[in-house]
Every structure is written in C-alpha cells, then in structure tokens.
Amino acid sequence: MTISTSEAREEAIRAEARLLGFDVCRFARADAPWSAAERLAEFVAAGRHGEMAWMETTAERRAHPTGMWPGARSAIVLGMNYGPDHDPLAVLSEPTRGAISVYAQGDDYHELIKKRLKALARWVQDRFGGELKVFVDTAPLMEKPLAERAGVGWQGRHTNLVSREHGSWLFLGSVLTELELRPDPVGEETCGSCRACLDVCPTNAFPAPFQLDARRCISYLTIELKAPIPHEFRPLLGNRIYGCDDCLAVCPWNKFASTAREQALHAREALRAPSLADLSRLDDPAFRALFAKSPVKRIGRDRFVRNVLYAIGNSGEPALAAEALRLLDDPAPVVRGAAVWALGRLLPPAEFEALRERRTRAEVDPEVAEEWRLAQPALAL
Ligand code: SF4
C-alpha cells in the first residue's frame, strides 16, 4: 500500500489500532510546551504523592514527553474502554463483601495493552519508519495530560481523564515517535458546574477541584501504602479492599460509555463481590491462585488481607470477629495490627479489654503493640 498523504497515514494508524482492539487512537504533538509540568511540581512539592517516591525521583523526566525521550515529535495516544457491565457501587451496600476496583476485577490491563501497543508500534515502524517508544502507565510518562492534548478527553475535576464517548472508564497507553503526525484538536474541559466526583469522595481527597491529595485517596491507601493505613481513614474505607471507584462511577459522562469490548477486561465472577470471610482465609498460594493475571496480585497477600480486615472491622457483623481473632496469630505484623483494629470494632468492650489484657504482653512487634494500645473498643460503631 502506498501512503501518499499525511492524513492517509494517520487514518491507517487509527484503523490498525482499532483492529488491535483499541477504542481510541488520536495524535498529539510531543514536543510542544505544556503546563502539566508545573502542576506535577506543585503536587510533589506539597507532598501529595505520599510514599510514591518514584513520582519525586522521576519528576524531571516526567515534566514533558521529550524529557522521556528528546527525539519524540508526536504521540500516538491509545485508549481501551473498560466500562463495567454492572453498577460498581452496588457492592458498597453489602458490608460482608469486599469491593474491588473495576479495573482490577478482570485481567491485568498493563499486560494486555503493552502487547498491543508493541504490535501497533511494530506496524507503524514497518510502514512509516522512524524510531519510537512504547509507554503504558508503569513508565513515568504523564499520560493524562497527553491524552487531553490529543483530544481523547479532558482531565476532570477528579483529575482523571473523562471522555465524551467512554466516560471515566479508559485505560491509556502511548507511543512516542519521531514521525511528524498531524495532531488532533485538544480536548476541552466539559465538566460544567458538576462536582459529583468531589462530593462523593469518602475521604475528602480533593483539596480543590482538579487537585488530588493522593495521601487521602483510598486507591493510594489500599494499593500503594505498605504501612498500616492511618487510623483516621480506616472507618472511611467501608468495604473497599482494593482501590475505589466512587469518583469515577458518579461521573455523568459515563452514561455514554459502553461495556468493555475486551472480554479479558470484564469482571471475573469471583471478584465482583467476594466474601470477606473467604478472603481473610487466603494464604499466600491461595492468594496467588485467586489473583493470577490480576493487578491485585502486585500488592501481595499480607497487604491485601490487611485491607480485608479493615473492611471486616467496618462490617458491623459480629460473626466476622472469628476471622479477625484467628489472624491475631498471623506471622505478618501488618495483618495482626489490622486484626486488632477489627476486633476493637466488633467485640463487646468487656470482651475486647480481656483480650487486650491477655495479648498485649505477648506481642513482640512495636507497631502491633501500639495498635493494642490505641484500639477503642466498639466506640466507632
Ligand atoms: Fe476519593 Fe475514591 Fe476518588 Fe480516591 S478514588 S479520590 S478516595 S472518590
């Protein structure tokens, strides 16, 4: 095939991207100035990235796409719709079940998208030449502002990307290339006066519209934070055990979104509303088996069971205290500490005090001993 005009080249790339399963393929200048660098610098300077030290150490490279690769001229920005086929917030009213973020209920999108991005990159290079590099979330490229520049959508008040066609449910990936591709019109912010995402946030993680304090965000707390989750946030987690969809799910633009085309991105039945009791019994091999090919696997069994125990503490279900009692003997301090907190919420005060009396002296880990000291039996329920 002979490509005679630049426009035909962009259309051919779009068609190939569609064939590969992408729902969106648009183009942006990679070398033009932008203001995203200042927003990132402010975010890092205010410490809002919490323990995500990579954000700080890569800030300079992340400041602009050409910081990642000076040769980049254009960006091919790809999106894959992962719209759920169910109401992702319905599980929040089932306190004995765990809520796992929609993106993590299916297969790991990083793996899925990376393969396809590489296939697209090979195809573009074979057809049109030029060096290129592939990025999907794990690389420190600022994909949301780049997607906005390519007109995939705009960064909404919740700071995530919003698309007119796919609402807030888009996985993003990018290919940077030396090719001079014709840029698409930039996305225009179309949130209007809506502030549903800000108002729904259980932890008040938005200091202002379009600004997120990751340290307060349940996605950060349950996924990125290795230490025990600060006490002030635990009651606010509800039954969210891996991530949080609230601000995404209430976005009115979702009404235009369809269910994910890609079967691998659909929720696995076992992860839609799993029983907290069952999850609390996972040992390492069982955890790995249940979350094979799932992004959840990355946080490891101990951190995951920690989250499950906070949800058990929030369940208001006394029968679940038996699971927390059993986990007081878990080898992982982060699990024992969360079990203490859950029992403080579920046991009658006298029973908890007797337990505290028996157990505190035997506890060797200072952080878990501190959990015993701080626990306030049944006060919060
Ligand atoms: Fe708040 Fe949840 Fe959105 Fe994080 S994901 S900002 S906790 S609503």
TrEMBL record:
Its cofactor is cob(II)alamin; [4Fe-4S] cluster. Keywords: 4Fe-4S, Cobalamin, Cobalt, Cytoplasm, Iron, Iron-sulfur, Metal-binding, Oxidoreductase, Queuosine biosynthesis, tRNA processing. [4Fe-4S] cluster 2 binds at C201, C217, C244, C247. InterPro entries: 4Fe4S_Fe-S-bd, 4Fe4S_Fe_S_CS, ARM-like, ARM-type_fold, QueG, QueG_DUF1730. The active site is at D137 (proton donor). [4Fe-4S] cluster 1 binds at C191, C194, C197, C251. Its EC number is 1.17.99.6. It catalyses: epoxyqueuosine(34) in tRNA + AH2 = queuosine(34) in tRNA + A + H2O. It holds the Pfam family QueG_DUF1730. SUPFAM superfamilies: alpha-helical ferredoxin, ARM repeat. Binds 2 [4Fe-4S] clusters per monomer. TRNA binds at K226. Pathway: tRNA modification; tRNA-queuosine biosynthesis. Cob(II)alamin binds at R62, D137, L161, L172, S219, C244, D245. GO terms for molecular function: epoxyqueuosine reductase activity. It is found in: Cytoplasm. Residues 181-211 form the 4Fe-4S ferredoxin-type domain. Catalyzes the conversion of epoxyqueuosine (oQ) to queuosine (Q), which is a hypermodified base found in the wobble positions of tRNA(Asp), tRNA(Asn), tRNA(His) and tRNA(Tyr). Belongs to the QueG family. Monomer. NCBIfam families: tRNA epoxyqueuosine(34) reductase QueG. This is Epoxyqueuosine reductase.
